[in-house]
Design a protein that fits this description.
With 536 residues, the chain is α/β, with parallel strands linked by helices. Helices cover 31% and strands 17% of the residues. Strands 1, 2, 3, 4, 5, 6, 17 and 18 form an eight-stranded mixed sheet that branches. Strand 14 and strand 15 form a beta hairpin. The longest helix is centred in the last third of the chain and has 21 residues. The radius of gyration is 23 Å and the shape is globular. Bound molecules: ligand NA7.
Length: 536
């Protein structure tokens, strides 16, 4: 019997998406640490490696959905569309991996199964499903906020004899829908992006909707190279603005209440933002859409009327009109031809509130009203967001305490970055940080830079440990909750609150105070000698 070889490292990073790739460069190439990345996929890309469903695209404009740490990289890369499509983002991340030689210390097709903090040596012991064991000073998670795909436990789910896919683990070779009867379950971002594309390929498409959604048109188009070149001339300033903004975008934020205008004036402003498309509708129309129910209702009514104008059949239109939650309470969706799709003769909408889903059968989906026979079921049913990917790993801190137990009543972190009792563990875009409420690369770069700066500080000061104080963590959790309380976010059943997973505690997980405010807070923490942390 051979003894397991234990590899000693400075840092182990889990995940090779945006976070892992950047950390690799920061820690390995700028700090000179011995770093190992562990990645479940067989290549880089993270979210963009897994989510290959038709129509998958990012809702951030492409010129902002990229790294800003290297000027030449920024100048060289050419995006082709206003919004980057999944294959293009994946090409970009592969390009980054090649350009900075980031693959050589990534172990692919491997999952971290456990990470235990060993107090006797102040190091983490990390084990993988391949039987490897690593010991490292720093453990850093770049495991994404939406990585643990969920298919609800529909009765008879495994009985279905046709093809079945979850959007978040789409086959690499693609799916041929030609001549097939398809059902899509779920109308969140993934459903809304894939439905128009599948409708064009399939013989027939049935959409099973539980909650109708508010959507803003993307106004997707190819990018004019001249426009991109103009942006690039000003790239530093544009990114600097985004770094200190609310949502990680360089948009001009208005400071005006929707209540302060006449109906006509307000509609004109909404109309202009609607024409521009995308998140500008949220950030550049009125400032109180997320905080004032009456203002939110005005945006909601504007969108409801757009749906009624777009969908030909008034009964179908009414089924698509969201009424049970305020605008801005769930993630605002950005769509391309979603509502238009219901004007096609091969598309049918089923309202699961009228006729709830009962079971899957060998041939399809049975609701209380009918059996819908299909060849393919696409589950666009979302993720165990923010904490799901942590819960898959047996993470244990001081005294063998499990992170899963610590978070049993909802995630508790300091700055969304660290957890008391789990020294030298950093989370990139963890719960309690701006993360999913921002343009992710901006949030990711901020976290990765903060982690690198912190590790550098510890090394220079010849310190071994950094650990969040329990009281700082409690205060942060309270702060995060207080910020969310008056917002629309608390008024819907959303994955932000864990409401999409049966039994998951209802806690608002991301920090909603804005990227700029969060960044300033972190800078203050560092300036005050890592306030809220114990360094030893
Ligand atoms: P989402 O946004 O969580 O959407 C999941 C959808 O699946 C949503 O419409 C759900 O309806 C529906 N769903 C979930 N469970 C069920 C059951 N049991 N029955 C019927 N319908 C169900 O996931 P996405 O993948 O679309 O998007 C996730 C994020 O990824 C997105 O916001 C982007 O940031 C990228 P519900 O609304 O819960 O009634």
């Amino acid at each position: 019997m051979t003894a397991t070889r234990v590899r000693e490292l400075d840092a182990l990073v889990i995940g090779a998406g945006f976070s892992g790739l950047y950390l690799n460069w920061r820690l390995r190439d700028t700090l000179g640490l011995d770093v190992q990345l562990i990645e479940a996929g067989d290549d880089v890309g993270g979210t963009w490696y897994w989510n290959r469903y038709p129509g998958a695209r990012c809702d951030s404009e492409s010129y902002m959905y990229c790294f800003a740490f290297d000027r030449d990289l920024m100048q060289d890369w050419e995006w082709s569309g206003k919004y980057p499509e999944q294959p293009e983002i994946l090409r970009y991340l592969n390009h980054v991996a090649d350009r900075f030689d980031l693959r050589r210390n990534i172990q692919f097709e491997t999952r971290v199964t456990a990470a235990h903090f060993d107090e006797t040596v102040n190091r983490w012991t990390v084990t993988t499903d391949g039987g490897d064991v690593y010991r490292c000073r720093y453990l850093i998670t770049g495991i994404g906020c939406l990585s643990n795909g969920q298919i609800p436990e529909f009765p008879g789910r495994d009985r279905f004899q046709g093809e079945a896919y979850h959007t978040g683990s789409w086959p690499h070779e693609g799916v041929d829908f030609a001549g097939k009867r398809v059902a899509v379950v779920g109308t969140g971002s993934s459903g809304v992006q894939s439905i128009p594309v599948i409708a064009k390929q399939a013989e027939h498409l049935t959409v099973l909707q539980r909650t109708p959604q508010y959507m803003i048109p993307a106004r997707h188009q190819t990018v004019d190279k001249a426009v991109l070149d103009e942006i690039k001339k000003d790239y530093d300033a544009i990114f600097e603005k985004a770094r200190h903004s609310l949502g990680g975008f360089p948009y001009d934020i208005v400071d005006r209440s929707a209540m302060a205008f006449s109906d006509d004036e307000r509609d004109a402003i909404f109309e202009e933002a609607w024409r521009a498309g995308g998140f500008k509708f949220v950030f550049s129309s009125f400032s109180d859409l997320r905080t004032n129910l009456a203002a939110s209702e005005m945006a909601a009514e504007f969108i409801r009327n757009k749906i009624r104008e777009t969908v030909n059949d008034p009964e179908v239109a009414e089924m698509l009109v969201p009424k049970d939650h305020p605008f801005g309470s769930k993630r605002t969706l950005i769509d391309t031809d979603y509502f238009e799709t219901y004007n096609r003769s091969n598309v049918r909408l089923v309202d699961l509130n009228e006729a709830p889903l009962v079971e899957m059968t060998e041939t399809g989906i049975r609701t209380e009203a009918e059996l819908i026979e299909v060849d393919v079921i696409v589950y666009a049913t979302g993720f165990d967001a923010m904490t799901g990917s942590f819960n898959r790993i047996d993470i244990r801190g001081r005294g063998g305490e499990r992170l899963k137990d610590r978070w049993a009543a909802g995630p508790r972190t300091y700055l969304g970055l660290a957890v008391s009792g789990f020294p030298n563990m950093f989370m990139i875009t963890g719960p309690g940080s701006p993360s999913v409420l921002t343009n992710m690369p901006i949030a990711i770069e901020q976290h990765c830079e903060l982690v690198a700066e912190t590790i550098d500080h510890l090394r220079k000061q010849e310190l071994q440990l950094i650990e969040a104080e329990r009281v700082a963590e409690d205060d942060w959790v309270e702060h995060v909750n207080k910020l969310a309380e008056p917002t629309m976010f608390m008024r819907a059943n959303s994955w932000y609150l864990g409401a999409n997973i049966p039994g998951k505690p209802r806690v608002f997980m991301p920090y909603c105070g804005g990227m700029g405010t969060y960044r300033a807070h972190c800078e203050k923490v560092v300036a005050n000698g890592y306030e809220g942390f114990v360094l030893s």
